[in-house]
Amino acid sequence: MTLLDGTSIALAPLLPWVFLAPLFAVALAVLALAVFRRARGVWLRALAVAVLALALINPSLVQEKREPIKDVAVVVLDASPSQNIGDRRVRAEAELERLTERLKAFDDLELRVVRAGDAASGASAINETHLFDALNRAMADVPRRRMAGAVLITDGQVHDVPENLARLAEAGPVHALLTGDRDEGDRRLAIVQAPAYGLVGKPVELTIRVDDMPGRQSPDAAVTLRQDGGPPRTIRVPVGRDFHMELPVNHGGQNVLEMEVEAARQELTLANNRTAVVVNGVRDRLRVLLVSGEPHAGERTWRNLLKADPSVDLVHFTILRPPEKQDGTPIRELSLIAFPIRELFEIKLDEFDLIIFDRYRRRGVLPQMYLENIAEYVQKGGALLEASGQGYATPLSLFRTPLGQVMPAEPTGQAIDRPFKPTVTEVGRRHPVTAGLPGDRPDGEPAWGRWFHQVEVVPGNGAVVMNGADDRPLLILDRVGKGRVAQLASDQMWLWSRGFEGGGPQAELLRRLAHWLMKEPELEENDLRAHVDGNRITVERRSLEPDPRSVTLTTPSDESRTLEMTEDRTGRASTTVIAGEPGIYRITDGERTALAVVGAVNPPELADVRSTGDRLSRVAGETGGGVHWISDTESGVRPGIDVRRTRPDRPQTGDGWIGLRANGDFTVTGVSEVPLLPVGAVLALALGALLLAWRREGR
User: Fold this and answer.
1) CATH of range 286-322+339-517; options 3.30.420.40, 1.10.10.10, 3.40.50.880, 3.50.50.60
2) In which residue ranges is the amino acid composition biased (Basic and acidic residues) (predicted)?
3) Would you list the DSSP string of 473-517?
4) Does the predicted TM-score (pTM) go above 0.85?
């Protein structure tokens, strides 16, 4: 039985109750019989029995020495990007300072402050605001009986509200102090549907939507579009309805479409007025035209390499019988079907993604007009690869045809016939086609096999990325008009594919050559790119010449900062930055521009940036907390949000105040026990009562 806090009466019977109970029953029966007979001295006998019974029960006074344990209160500060809107962050910091000062005045309270939703907490902080994860981590080591409650300083846009609040309610009231203003309005641009991939040369369909919140402010809005950093164009989009549009996929790799809607009459932020769609362009089928000037040992190498890729449609023909060859073979036995030269080189030439001339020389098979078509095809954006054989060093060279105007190197008329190992030049180690080729050793001889033939050429344009015998140009890459040309001054790559002297990286080299010729963004030699991993942006610049320039990064909030780049020996300069908010980041070095889209296409953090108490009202209701607007205290409606320590059975919130539960928990450091009935006193009292009863009965 408890008398006061820390004081109670404890019973320690001298005999087990199984013996005491019958004994007490007999004593009571005897007393009842005496009362029934109206015997003298019955009350004195009852007093003696009661004293003896108490002595047998052995009551004692127990007093505990208690040490109070402080309750724990957790304050979670929302540091997510939406808190940067207006005065929210200033209000939040001021309220945190005021709340901290007020709570530290309570001696029985331990305060824990947690910041949640900032960029340092991971990628989820960019897309969503997770306050309850932070709250659970802060009170993970605290027993629920010690929790006084929690206070969330936020704009109310919280995305991890738990469905089951029973466990949270055991930890005390959860209060929300809202940092925004009542009746806010905003406009946003959202991507409703967008594919991740598209076929190069074919448009993909997008669905976008412009919403005015809380209501429709205008029937339509102007949306500015900019694809891959190109010139802007403007379209009108209805407000409050889905709008369908097409995005042309112009090239392989990332096709980025930036969109920005004009500001409305009410705007909290322009960060959600901008968005971007990234569609990865893939080629349905790679159409390659391979023209072999004559049969030779390496012809099958080209064919096998190209046919090994199931995405390649190869058209290959070899000139077996040039016009000047005369023999007695009947015409009807030479061919069943005439070769479609006109169809390939005039009608359907633009349908090919890559044209390869392998050991070709002029023999009158392809008229000059068709070679002019190929040169024009390159100027308009086509890709040409020429592997020089013996004929390139003769007057029958392709350089002496209209194709000479797009060839990067001129033959000297000399051929080199002696063993050599192809080597990557210093420029080649910076070019993505040859940088890091398997077997290349910058400080020694490459670990691949030798070649034995090379045509001597003098480069006029382009970049020499590989040298051959006597450090003469072997592989030259050049841009011509809108197209690209690669020239290999040897026809002996087949030695690598046959494994001669260990072979070489012919498959990797040809793959890179083909993709560079077809303008794959990943193989651009002078380029500025940005890669996003969660909330980490890696900026990378490739250049054939050392470039010490820094880059400028512009955030979705139009804040700019300068980033210094660190360059390595392969021509790559890179730097990494942590994104503090979702949206489109623009990086430029003054010449080139790259875009980085951080976060989801429609991040919940920017879906609705209006401050609201709707998301937290259920939490506050089920835990006994309250939702209060900090702005009300600024307007003079209330002097300030007061903080009180309340009993668990009392209300935890009210008009203008919040309560933190006072649990009164403690630890027992010692116990003292004092018998209530000393043995001597009990015996004297019981004996005295019996003597008085005997004397009374004897009269």
Assistant:
1) 3.40.50.880
2) 558-571
3) EEEEEEEETTEEEEEES-S-THHHHTTGGG---HHHHHHHHHHHH
4) no
